Please model this.
Amino acid sequence: MYNKGDVPSAPGVPVVTKFRNSVYQLNWEPAQAHGSQVTLYRLEGLVIDDSYKQDDGSKENEQWDLYYNGTDNYWIIPGDVDQKYKFRVQAKNAYGFGAWSKSSAIIDLTESAGGILATQQHLPLMLGLIAIVITIMFVCFCYFFCRKYTCFQLQIN
Model:
């Protein structure tokens, strides 16, 4: 139970949604406002390395970093976020910050970075091939146009 006005409840657990090749969005259920509108969501992430051990308790030495501060209950993940993470969210209203949400499952964004990197690596090759094809088409056009023009000139003389 809560008083007439109180800090918001913990938001829902963050979950990831994939839209396109490398576009991901993190969503969470909104917090209950408890008498004052939610004015801010604060999203933090924890980078997960191979030595990470899953447990229910939060460790004192874990380094959570701020990734989002805003009013929406979602965050579109930028391409430079390209490791394994756990995320948590906290809501704020006029009475202060509420409790943190439960941490998300481990979200692996290393695949999204690979897709972007592969596209960037192939771009010069594709542009080079396109330039070669356009050049060949131009040379062929000029050759046939000049040949026709020469034949036309010979017919006139």
Q: What stands out?
A: Helices lie at 110-156. Residues 113-120 have pLDDT under 50 and may be disordered.
